[in-house]
Amino acid sequence: MATIKIRSSEFIDRGVIKPLPTGSSYMNVGSTERIVSAAAGLALMYFGLRKFSMPGLLAGAAGAALFERGASGYCPVNNLVQRGPAKKSVETAEITKSLTINKPRTEVYQYWRKLENLPTFMQHLESVSQTDERRSHWVAPVPGGVGKISWDAEIVEEVENEKLSWRSVLNAAVDNSGEVLFKDAPGDQGTEIYVIIKYLPPAGAIGSTVAKLFNPAFKQMLKEDLRRFKRLMEIGEIPVSEAQPSGKKLAFGDTTHDKIEQAYESPLL
Amino acid sequence: MKALCYNSVKDLRVENVPDPEIISPKDMIVRVTLSSVCGSDLHIINGFIPTVKAGDVLGHEFMGGVVETGRDVKKFVKGDRVVVASVIACGECHYCNQQSYSLCDNTNPNAYLPEKMFGDTLAGIYGYTHAFGGYAGSHAQYIRVPFADNGAFKVPEGLQDDSVIFCSDAFPTGYMAADMANIKPGSVVAVWGAGGVGQMAMQSAWLLGAERVIAIDREAYRLRVAKEKSKAETLNFTEVEVLEALKDLTGGRGPDCCIDAVGMESSGTGIGYAYDKAKQWARMENDRPLVLRDAIMACRKGGTVSIVGVYSGFADKIPMGAAMNKALTFKMGQMHGPKYIPRLLDHVQNGDVDPSFLVTHKMGLHQGQQGYDMFTLKEDNCMRVVFDPQKSLQHG
Questions:
Q1: CA distances (Å), B255 to each of A65, A131, B248, B276, in order?
Q2: Among A2, A47, A123, B285, which has the highest number of CB atoms less than 10 A from its own CB?
Q3: CB contact, 8 Å: A237 with chain B?
Q4: Do B23 and A240 touch (CB under 8 A)?
């Protein structure tokens, strides 16, 4: 695989940075093969996971892998043996959000810049660890609790207290890049943050359609993450109302205390 | 503990629910001694405000005694007697810094709901649907008070519960209505709605220097109270043509300040009322804005319309032509409780206002449905039913 050069001079203006199409957005499985893979994968998952046994789970896992190969059009085995059709370019999906935080810009920037802090408000991240000055390792649980995905990212530009941009490095689970800008809000209202995230839909051309469908959800996710960030910065906590008395019938074994424990699991309290 | 919960439209039930616990270090737990019904609860109970769920504990106007404090609570200790603002505010965001507490950015965990309904997030309110945060309400033996240092206020020695309870919501709402109405020396203030909030608006109008105060309602007994307790002139809209009467009473000018203390389920007469009632029944219109229409039409040129009656969605046939061409000022909002409560407690302590006349009925939680029915139907000259949640201990 060719080495990709990252030149920070490319990233002068907002949102110029783009993710590198190296990981799962890169397709190397043909169309017919993808359909067959996906269908076979689904069938295996269905029959495998119907029975809660070791062989069943294994069949289910194999099915999931096959399905992913079909859905994404990317096969790691093909990649290794240099097999498969030529790569296709895919459309970059983009989400942007901005929010005003009633705290000084340096404070807001410094909290964000310590990348280990990000999972305290980015609900779908498990951890971020800085591996060297520029590189970081990101881990996110897969929805449904059946494993994790992880990727490495690299800071491509940093202007202290003003701007931070990054992008995922080779073979990321989701090729992505992003930029956060920090500006003084007018009229002594704190700091405006502008977030631009770009990603290459993991499922290739089909994925572009899927991304269009899911983009509003991602946008809402980003918005909620930023809101949590704001609340954390402004009041040091993220208020909850779920873990409290209600007359609704609780499920067996479910107690208000458990719910409070869950609320406490948030690292913010 | 026992709590009065929403079950379905016009169906409230007392349930055994778990006791509240401290969740954040800024929380405290209050043992509720009084918790009032409020006209705005009726919009929820009657099914006009979405996002209420079966099991939600209702009630947002309350006072009580502190039984437990989180480690970051500085202003209170166990045993303090407190009255709590119905609106939950963080005290740290830009809006709280401006004392616009009901616009707090941070206390609504379900911020996305008002964002969808109203275009932005709003403060949480106790027991007031999930769009307003989904916080458990005060019609319960105990309640968790988040951001206690910002929302709760110590009750001065020597004041009776009945005189203090309405400093939680009705008095600050009425006071804010008067505050927004731009009352100046010589101002004539008309108040639509002679319920709890309306009465407090009338008395606040006097505090802020009104020249005359006129009360408008359909219930003779409420107008009687407005005359006796709030020193208002009164108009019964079932007996007189209000717009004409207001002109006749004010040298042909109309009131300088018009306060809507009724909101979305207002009553009226004639074809307009039937039209709105039908649309609202069919859920084609959330709001039945008869009072608002009258306030706009009655208001003198260049005057101010101040709205504290609750609206939840869309309202039809608002006379914008009259509002625009008469150059009216509109001011409105949910009340910014903590901004006003300290000065209102002072007024109560000084004897300027004693809101205790609003407590016409006291009940236990087990009489919750009955209490709300009585309040809705305005039976037995009911102004406000106030629950004593501890009283329900003796009953199933």
A1: 74, 70, 11, 25
A2: B285
A3: yes
A4: yes
